[in-house]
Amino acid sequence: MPEPKDDLALLTEAARKAGAVACRFVGATAKRWDKPDNAGPVTEADLAVNALLLSDLCGARPDYGWLSEETEDNSDRLAHERVFIIDPIDGTRSFVAGEDTWAHSLAVVDAGEVTAAVVYLPMRDMLYAASRGGGATLNGAPIRSSKQTDLAEATVLAARPALVAERWHGGEPPVFKRSYRPSLAYRMALVADASFDAMITLRRTWEWDIAAGTLIVNEAGGTCSTTNGSPVRFNNPDPRIDGIVAGGTAVQAALIDALA
Questions:
Q1: Domain spanning 151-258, CATH class
Q2: 236: number of Cβ within 10 Å
């Protein structure tokens, strides 16, 4: 079986090709549709990138399973030890709006753990990458997560619904400096490179949104867990996680302690 570093090279090449495909479309004019059940928009760019990645990645690793936001899921992937978990465009709303904070999120999972990961923002030429045991990088340079220890001084990426009082001990969210970015994969990458101290989402989250970011944060020296502090496992029959907290070790632990 290929080593994580070999899978990382494959993901890196595929991510750059995906960026070239996506950038051929103009977000505001790309054909788009709304998914059922208010699941958000999908564009012709999402579908084109998904087709490219499915062909290239599964062509190179035909014995790996496949889980992608833009491919109808089935149980076949559960029979595979190794699985690609892919979000062709994370932050489609940002893509449609013509913004530059959308990303390609690519990961390889082996027996539930991420072993190779790439988050690529082509409009910003930012490629975050990690392999298990190999550290994390941004455009080839090593990155490390935050060393902040004081939650009150921490910068935390979180949507407003994460601050609802009933989700926190004492009925009050802790004091921290809140910011927001629309792409979950990008939020996790910004935690990995210490641009922010932590990120939190309390809603049920699809595996493809967070698989790559989880390894990148961990390999940058940070910590990722579910909201109750459990390790995150991937390629589940229901590919959703009940929220995630990621950050520098001290701030991440403080957020977990503060959650009800």
A1: alpha beta
A2: 13
Tell me the pLDDT tens digit for each residue of 183-195: 999 999 999 999 9
Report the mean per-residue pLDDT for the chain: 94
Helix axes 184-192, 207-219, angle to 10 degrees: 0
Q: Residue type for 138, please?
A: L
Domain chopping of the chain, boundaries: 4-142, 151-258
**pLDDT tens figures, 11-64:** 999 999 999 999 998 766 778 777 766 667 789 999 999 999 999 999 999 999
- For domain 4-142, the CATH class is alpha beta
3-class state of residue 141 by DSSP: strand
Rounded-to-integer distance, Cα 43 and Cα 27, Å:
8
Kindly state the tokens that stand for 132: 């298990």
**Cβ partners under 8 Å of residue 58, min gap 6:** 64, 66, 84
